[in-house]
Q: What sequence folds into this?
């Protein structure tokens, strides 16, 4: 299970940071189109790598997990990106990074708890 958690965190990092373009990062706080593009790329990572992390999980559970995390990622980023955008403009750096950390905590909790409650960890 610990390896699955580490793999999940790595896939999250790729989808949330590595594959997020400059345009997505700069505009997701003010454009739902940019935010949806970011969430689509993130969700594609879960779709592609999820079967490697959870190879024995039924397709219905896996698709439920992906859909839950896609929706939760949109809502979380919708709120936190607007909040951090304002904090950045005001140069409130400690608060800015606190909210970036909260954003990540929410994403990790959502990924892990949804997988746990769907019985995906073996």
A:
């Amino acid at each position: 299970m610990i390896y699955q958690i580490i793999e999940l965190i790595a896939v999250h990092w790729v989808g949330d940071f590595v594959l997020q373009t400059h345009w997505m990062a700069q505009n997701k706080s003010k454009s739902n189109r940019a935010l949806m593009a970011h969430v689509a790329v993130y969700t594609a990572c879960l779709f592609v790598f999820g079967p490697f992390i959870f190879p024995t999980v039924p397709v219905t559970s896996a698709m439920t997990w992906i859909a839950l995390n896609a929706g939760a990622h949109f809502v979380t980023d919708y709120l936190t990106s607007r909040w951090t955008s304002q904090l950045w403009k005001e140069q409130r750096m400690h608060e800015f990074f606190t909210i970036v950390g909260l954003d990540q905590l929410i994403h990790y909790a959502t990924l892990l708890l949804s997988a746990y409650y769907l019985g995906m960890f073996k």
